[in-house]
Design brief:
By secondary structure, the protein is α/β, with parallel strands linked by helices. The chain has helices at residues 21-33, 41-48, 68-81, 115-123, 144-162, 178-186, 220-228, 235-244; strands spanning 4-6, 18-20, 37-39, 58-60, 62-64, 85-89, 127-131, 168-170, 191-197, 209-211. The radius of gyration is 17 Å and the shape is globular.
Length: 251
């Protein structure tokens, strides 16, 4: 799980929202050097469903919010390696400033990619565009109808922009509940990523996928440790796995 990639001043807070572009380039080079297979989200889902074998060393790359600096700093590195990735876009905020940053005084406010830039990235065949809702709200705090609009309308708007299906979702701020999961299924999403920490496996519901957050402070050793060693699920992920183990999302 990445957010911004670029050039940033040292920080003490919100570190999981930033990755220095030089460290990002080194991380991608490490994946290539160690023989990791970088899979598209669709390839990874097929593997988790048992429809295709998963490589021993497999990773999926996701980028939340669709910041402009993805196109400037992350995309050239991904293109050089031929690595696919999924970028989650906020449909009503394309080309605008990420004004939710303003609640933290002094924090630089980045801009988000335009519709044209999303189309260009999607056209490369390496970048999948997923939904990050309409307005980047905490979905679990909304009533069911408001949640439905955020999920359905964002998917529809992004599909109109891309001229292609939008199948993947990311819950803004990692905020979701059982109703959100059911509504995401009804809206036609085949996957949804969360901020639950752990390695994804066949035991995970496709609409409650865990991720590993890459932070501003992660050096190459720390990145490798997260990649290869830090697989233990956090308690909240264990609880979601238990709750969804026997019941479909639509129940």
């Amino acid at each position: 799980m990445y957010h911004q990639v670029g050039v940033f001043a040292p920080m003490r807070t919100h570190r999981a929202n930033y990755c220095d572009h030089r460290r990002f380039a080194a991380q991608m080079a490490l994946l290539a050097h160690l023989g990791y297979r970088v899979l598209s989200l669709d390839e990874g889902l097929a593997g988790l469903r048992g429809e295709r074998p998963l490589p021993v060393r497999a990773v999926i790359l996701t980028f939340d919010d669709a910041y402009d600096n993805f196109a400037e700093y992350a995309w050239p590195v991904l293109e050089r390696h031929g690595f696919p990735a999924t970028v989650y876009a906020i449909s009503a905020w394309l080309g605008q400033r990420a004004d939710w940053f303003a609640k933290d005084p002094g924090r630089p406010i980045p801009t988000l990619m335009t519709a044209a830039r999303l189309r260009a990235l999607h056209a490369t065949g390496l970048i999948a565009i997923g939904s990050h809702s309409v307005d980047h709200l905490r979905l679990a705090t909304l009533d069911p109808e408001a949640q439905r609009r955020q999920l359905v309308d964002s998917r529809s708007a992004l599909e109109d922009i891309l001229g292609a299906p939008v199948r993947h979702l990311c819950y803004p701020f990692g905020s979701f509940d059982r109703t959100t999961v059911q509504l995401a299924e009804e809206a036609g999403y085949v996957s949804a990523t969360t901020c639950l920490r752990g390695a994804a496996g066949p035991e995970d519901h496709p609409l409650v996928l865990p991720r590993k957050a890459i932070s501003f402070g992660d050096n190459l050793l720390g990145y490798w440790w997260k990649l290869a060693i830090k697989h233990a699920p956090k308690p909240e992920l264990v609880e979601w796995r238990r709750r969804l183990a026997k019941a479909p999302a639509s129940s």
